[in-house]
Structure formats: structure tokens, C-alpha cells
Amino acid sequence: MASTVVAVGLTIAAAGFAGCYVLQAMKHMEPQVKQVFQSLPKSAFSGGYYRGGFEPKMTKREAALILGVSPTANKGKIRDAHR
Predict the structure, then answer these.
(1) Residue 50: closest CA among 36, 76, 75, 69
(2) Half-sphere exposure in the Cβ direction for 41 (13 Å, CA)
(3) 10 pLDDT exceeds 90?
(4) Mean pLDDT highest for which of 46-50, 51-55, 71-75?
(5) CB–CB of 64/74 below 8 Å?
(6) How many other C-beta atoms are found inside a 10 Å radius of the C-beta of residue 68?
(7) Cβ distance 65 to 50 under 8 Å?
(8) DSSP string across the chain
(9) What mean pLDDT is reported for the chain?
């Protein structure tokens, strides 16, 4: 019983130390992470999801909005967007 309590205590302490280490490492990595996010295209975080109501039956326009293509896109572009 006592050995179980000690093992649990050591596990919690190890998790705490690991968490502190991760937080300190993230503070040192913050400039690099910001630089990476700034180098990504704006469209990656523009909330490109279609935020609107849908019709009971999906229309071609709605499908194009979900896939992020033009409603007049050819089949190849639609396939590429679907993948």
C-alpha cells in the first residue's frame, strides 16, 4: 500500500517537472513559432469554412463553398479540393 502511494507521488512529481520543462522550452521557442505562423499564407487561418445555413438538399454552390472552389470549377479542381 505504501509503495503504491510513493509510486503515485513520484509519478505526479515527474509529470509536474516535465510540465515545467515544457513550459520553459515553449518560452524559448516562442519567437520561432511566431515567425513560422507569420510565414504561413493568410488563407490558412482565415476561417475559410462556410458559415451559413444549408439547404435541405445540397446545391452545387454549397458544395463549392465547402470545398473552397468556384461553383464553375472543372471536375479536376473539384477532385483535387476533395482530396
Answers:
(1) 69
(2) 4
(3) yes
(4) 71-75
(5) no
(6) 13
(7) yes
(8) -HHHHHHHHHHHHHHHHHHHHHHHHHHHHHHHHHHHHHHS-GGGGS--S--S---SS--HHHHHHHHTS-TT--HHHHHHHH-
(9) 81
Three cell numbers written together for 53:
445555413
45: Cβ contacts below 8 Å, ≥ 6 apart: 37
The whole-number average pLDDT for the span 44-67 is 71
Q: pLDDT of 13-46, one tens digit each?
A: 999 999 888 888 888 888 887 888 777 766 555 5
Q: Which amino acid is at 70?
A: S
